[in-house]
Amino acid sequence: MYENTKKNRTYKPDLIYPDLSYKIIGIIFDVFLKLGFGYRENQYQKAVEIGLQGAGLAYKKELPVKITYSGKFVAVNYLDFLIDDKIVLEFCTFV
């Protein structure tokens, strides 16, 4: 299920960007542990943005993406974060 790789770290073999994925997960856990439960989506987003900056990770915030169907424009969706041009991070909170 998991495999040992460099530096004695254990990774899930199906992760495409394991180092980056684990950095992001670490930031998200840190935010949740420090803020706790019950805040609005935009408040968690701001805290994660501070974490991304602190970790020196490149990101784009609220990046517009066109949605098309059969070659026709449907709508524009805004990604919460695109991190290092590799991983999309979307927030959804339940209060």
Walk me through this protein's architecture.
- The protein is of the alpha+beta class and 95 residues long.
- The protein has one domain (3-89).
- The protein has helices at 18-35, 41-54; strands at 3-4, 10-11, 59-69, 72-83, 87-89.
- The strands form two sheets. It has a three-stranded antiparallel β-sheet, with no helix packed on it.
- Helix 1 packs across helix 2 (41-54).
- The longest helix is centred in the N-terminal third of the chain and has 18 residues, at 18-35.
- The chain is globular and about 45 Å long.
- The model has no long low-confidence stretch (mean pLDDT 89).
**What is the count of helical runs?**
2
Low-confidence stretches are: none
Strand order of the largest sheet: 3-4-5
Q: Any idea what the radius of gyration is?
A: 16 Å
- What global shape is seen? globular
Helix content: 25-40%
The total domain count is 1
Q: Ends: how far apart?
A: 34 Å
Backbone structural class = alpha+beta
Residue-averaged pLDDT: 89
How can the largest sheet be summarized? 3 strands, antiparallel
What letter string, H or E per element, gives the SSE order?
A: EEHHEEE
> Total strand count, please?
5
Strand content: 25-35%
Offer a concise description of the structure.
The chain is of the alpha+beta class and 95 residues long. It has helices at 18-35, 41-54; strands at 3-4, 10-11, 59-69, 72-83, 87-89.
Keywords:
2 helices, three-stranded antiparallel beta sheet, globular, 5 strands, two-stranded antiparallel sheet
